[in-house]
Amino acid sequence: GKGRYNHYMLKEINEQPEALRQTLNGRVDLENERVELEEFPEGAFEGVDEVHFVACGTSYHAAVYARQLFHDRGIPAQAFFASEYATINPPLGENTLTVAVTQSGETADTLSALRRAAGKGGRTLAVTNVVGSTAAREADDALFIRAGPEIGVAATKTFSSQVVSLAMLAERMAEDRGAEPRADAARYLQALSDLPDAIEQVLGDTSAERVASAYADSLSHFFIGRGTGHAVALEGALKFKEITYEHAEAFAAGELKHGPLALVTSETPVFAVLSGDYDEKTYGNMEEVKSRGAPVIALTDAPESVSRVTDDVITMPETHEDLKSLLANVQLQLLSYHAASLRGRAIDKPRNLAKSVTVE
Ligand code: M6R
């Protein structure tokens, strides 16, 4: 049941530390500074020269986040909407690994992309929460994210567990491909292990709830970011639309001035996810919207450095740069939850939506 929570969504947001402990359990070896995935013996990814992520919705955003982590480790990776995979029809080399990222393992679009890759002779991997799901059974291999059952239609804890699972996959794959170990391996792996505690700190913070009510009368909520911050901006906007029924949109911070800036007014608060990737450039984008009268809310671990360009700040604890946006995402989950709750929405079962979309 929901226990002391009014909604499964809030319960699942709060379960993230425990879910991540399960995701990480036995997989990060701090002593030898490496990741160990029980499913994959040494050399399992030796031949892989490119990764195609196929996914939908929140799982697609996890793939967009992960793409950057793979690139940082020298692994060519692309993220596709599963429903677009057939149309875009990317060439598939014999050493391309198609990775289906799917919480349920039953999403029709994702299964169809997976089957397409397999049909072309490609190797496949399912990254999923459900042992025994169709994706897990059909793919050559499966990596389980171990987040525990998710009931709320809005995906929350599974996003965090997907990103962390994919982060570990990137490390394992880099090792098999003979990449140099990360220069910051000890600090990164420690930060991964400490992530459940960092999320616990975020969950104790009430700023997202305060901000949700401060901007409740807005015409639209905009989310901007760069790199992993863009992935999380996309996820923040999806969650906001899905459960508040209000308009929300995400932009790569640098794209604002190429069109969307025309929409920006005092009635469109702009949430900036500061991921540590070229933040100075994002400050510039924040100034652009501020000078058009839009309220600017920063998600950051360094509030003092943005006070000049913000009306409000949502602060996160410090962590490794690659994981910062994951903490910002938890704040955005809380923002959407409280915004939807203020409006009295059917948070666990938003209109028109199903937990698992089994038609193409
Ligand atoms: O089970 P999957 O991860 O394959 O589901 C993909 C999407 O349908 C899902 O993430 C959807 O976008 C969520 N309702 C978002 O909160």
TrEMBL record:
It catalyses: D-fructose 6-phosphate + L-glutamine = D-glucosamine 6-phosphate + L-glutamate. The keyword tRNA processing does not apply. One of its GO terms (molecular function) is glutamine-fructose-6-phosphate transaminase (isomerizing) activity. Keywords: Aminotransferase, Cytoplasm, Glutamine amidotransferase, Repeat, Transferase. Its EC number is 2.6.1.16. One of its GO terms (cellular component) is cytoplasm. It is found in: Cytoplasm. Catalyzes the first step in hexosamine metabolism, converting fructose-6P into glucosamine-6P using glutamine as a nitrogen source. Homodimer. This is Glutamine--fructose-6-phosphate aminotransferase [isomerizing]. The lineage of its organism: Archaea, Methanobacteriati, Methanobacteriota, Stenosarchaea group, Halobacteria. The gene is glmS. The chain holds residues 246 to 605 of 605 of the full protein.
